Every structure is written in C-alpha cells, then in structure tokens.
C-alpha cells in the first residue's frame, strides 16, 4: 500500500506493506478487522467560525458496506482506518521481521519544507502514525486494497513507473529475487529504462478486479483525457485540485470526454468547491454503460503532465454510487 498524506492528496494505491503468503497483513477497518478494501473521503476544514468541522472528519466505505458513513474517529487517531492499517507497518518496523517488507515514500520527505514536482505524491510519517496540521485544510481521498502476494510482481513494475521518492524501506532477501524493482528502489540503485506508461490488471485478495494506470514523467500529457478516458471507453467526471490559473479546462476533443467537477456535496446543504479539495478521483459520467471509479495522485493541471503517478480503477457498484452522489455540478466543454 502506498500511503499519501499531507500536501496534495491521500491515495493508497498499493499494499506496500506485505509479507510472505502465510502473513495476515490486510487493510483494516476502525475496529481493527481485516477488510478486502476500503476508501475514504477526508472532508476539508470549514473556514467559518460557526462550523465545528476540524478538517479531520472523514467519510468511509469498505468491502462489507454499501454506502458512505461518517467515521466515528478523526483522521489523526490511531483508531482511524489509516491508523489501524498502518499500525501493521510500524509493528513490522519495530520487530525487524524478515518475513515483512515495506516501502515508504513522499514527494517531500516528512519534516522537510521542500518537495519535488518530479516524484509521485504518496507519503507516510516515519515515526509512528500521525496526521499533519497541513493536511487539514483541504479535502483528500484514499483507497486501500489488500492483495495476495502473487500480485506483487505486477505491482513491482507499476511502482517503478510511478517513480517514488523512497525515504524508508525494507525489502528482505526473501523478496528480492521476485520483486527486483522494489529492491532497486529501496537501494536507490539505477534501474533499467522505465516505460512511459503501463496498465496492469490486479485482483484483490477476495477477487475484486482493479486496473492500475501508471505513468512516468516521460509520458507528458493529461492522464485523464489522453489515456484513461479513451482506455476505459467512458466520459469521465474528474475531481482534482482546481488551483486558480493552473487547471486544465474540460476536454471534448477526443472520442471520450473529460469534464471537471466544480463542487462536491456532502449532505443536505453542505458542499465545498474543488478549490478546497486536494482529492484526485474520477468517475464515469452518469448514464454511461461503463461505470468506473478511479482514485489516484495526479491533478488536471499543465504542470502535472510532467509528474509520475497513477490511478487505480474499479467497477465496484457501491464505490461508484458513493462517489457519484458527491458530484454537485461539473463544467461542460466550451
């Protein structure tokens, strides 16, 4: 699982904490029970004085439920879904167990004031679980998927393309023959030439199918319009950080269109705009045959075309319906 926390997005794309086949590492819910997958939406902090929203509340959906529910915990709690899941990483780190491997990476190393536009976004605090104050202001999304070990050779190749800036890792000798790229990344050694992009089919531990789109910084284009929409054969509604003067307009120039979501509704009269949202996700336009949901770590921005990263996509109907109900309105093409 790659975890993304802090400046821009929170996207759990792989289970980057993994063990030998008999290990029981898994995504975990707030009770600490194993689940096949979960997704969440951390809500932005309200700026008005009347609101009690702290920027740590989140919506939650997993493989045992059918729709969003408001979390009982705050995101900075060790009993949150991230806290429960990442606890396995910290336990493995403390035990120095050779049956467990992990990778932790970040475009800006924790406690550093600098970050690089070159690397993938994903990140985790190194010393135990916490959620930084800088992550409270804006909305963020994430997905965790539990994979069996037989999926990790494919993940190994995808991770190389995503170009992670790894700052803490452990790939014991048990894994190095099969997970060549992870071992190279961990050792910070030069690897073979990286493909510009690659699409992988992955299957969760309980048989849920996923597609993973990975692009390197040599694929210089909008991943949504140039690749994902055309590959999935569906018009996409995209929710990414709509930073002023740094966004791409909705695109209808290709067979399958990409439309920018402009506002997210939570419940009743509660909503927020894309300017308050660092989430990065997209769904098929309502009424289309192919109903996809994708969660990842790239914005629709001219600058993001030069960044490595990717999206994990699913046709799970409950995930699609949960995200579809969040769309308040989107921007048509001019």
Short précis:
This protein has 334 residues and is an alpha+beta fold.
Describe the overall structure.
The chain is an alpha+beta fold and 334 residues long. The protein has one domain. The protein contains 6 helices and 18 strands. Strands 10, 11, 12, 13, 14, 15, 16, 17 and 18 form a 9-stranded mixed β-sheet that branches. The model is unreliable at 1-16 and 117-123 (pLDDT under 50). InterPro entries: DNase_II. It comes from Myotis lucifugus (Little brown bat). It is found in: Lysosome. Residues 1-23 form the signal peptide.
Helices, strands, pairings?
Layout: E1 17-19, E2 27-28, E3 34-35, E4 37-42, E5 58-62, E6 69-70, H1 81-95, E7 100-105, E8 140-145, H2 152-162, E9 166-170, H3 173-176, H4 180-187, E10 197-203, E11 209-215, H5 223-232, E12 236-239, E13 258-267, E14 270-273, E15 281-284, E16 293-296, E17 309-314, H6 317-324, E18 327-331
Parallel strand pairs: 12-13
Antiparallel strand pairs: 1-7, 2-3, 4-5, 4-8, 5-6, 7-9, 10-11, 11-17, 12-15, 13-14, 13-18, 15-16, 16-17
- Biggest sheet layout: 9 strands, mixed
Low-confidence stretches: 1-16, 117-123
Rounded mean pLDDT is 85
Structural class: alpha+beta
The ordered H/E elements are EEEEEEHEEHEHHEEHEEEEEEHE
- Helix tally equals 6
Strand residues, percent: 25-35%
What spatial form do the alpha-carbon principal axes imply? globular
Number of strands: 18
**Oligomeric status:** single chain
Helix content: 10-25%
* Tally of individual domains: 1
How far the N terminus sits from the C terminus, by CA atoms, comes to 39 Å
Gyration radius, rounded? 19 Å
């Amino acid at each position: 699982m790659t975890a993304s926390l802090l400046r821009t997005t929170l996207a759990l794309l792989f289970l980057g904490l993994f063990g030998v086949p008999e290990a029981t590492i898994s995504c975990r819910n707030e009770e600490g029970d194993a689940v096949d997958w979960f997704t969440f939406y951390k809500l932005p902090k309200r700026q008005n004085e009347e609101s009690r929203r702290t920027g740590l509340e989140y919506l939650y959906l997993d493989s045992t439920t059918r729709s969003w529910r408001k979390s009982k915990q705050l995101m900075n709690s060790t009993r949150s879904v991230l806290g429960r899941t990442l606890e396995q990483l910290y336990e493995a780190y403390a035990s120095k167990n050779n049956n467990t491997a992990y990778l932790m990476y970040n475009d800006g190393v924790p406690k550093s004031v600098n970050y690089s536009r070159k690397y993938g976004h994903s990140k985790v605090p190194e010393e135990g679980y916490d959620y930084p104050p800088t992550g409270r202001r804006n909305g963020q999304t994430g997905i965790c998927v539990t994979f069996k070990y037989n999926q990790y050779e494919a993940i190994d190749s995808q991770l190389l393309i995503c170009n992670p800036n790894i700052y803490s890792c452990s790939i014991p000798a048990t894994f190095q023959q099969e997970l060549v790229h992870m071992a190279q990344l961990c050792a910070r050694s030069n690897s073979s030439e990286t493909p510009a992009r690659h699409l992988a089919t992955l299957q969760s531990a309980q048989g849920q199918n996923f597609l993973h789109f990975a692009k390197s910084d040599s694929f210089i284009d909008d991943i949504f319009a140039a690749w994902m929409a055309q590959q999935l054969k569906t018009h996409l509604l995209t929710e990414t950080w709509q930073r002023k003067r740094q966004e791409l307009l909705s695109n209808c120039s290709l067979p399958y269109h990409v439309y920018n979501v402009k506002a997210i509704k939570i419940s009743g009269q509660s909503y927020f705009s894309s300017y308050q949202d660092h989430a990065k996700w997209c769904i098929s336009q309502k009424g289309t045959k192919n109903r996809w949901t994708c969660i990842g770590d790239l914005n629709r921005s001219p600058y993001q075309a030069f960044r490595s990263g990717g999206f994990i996509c699913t046709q799970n109907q409950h995930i699609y319906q949960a995200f579809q109900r969040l769309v308040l309105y989107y921007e048509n093409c001019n």
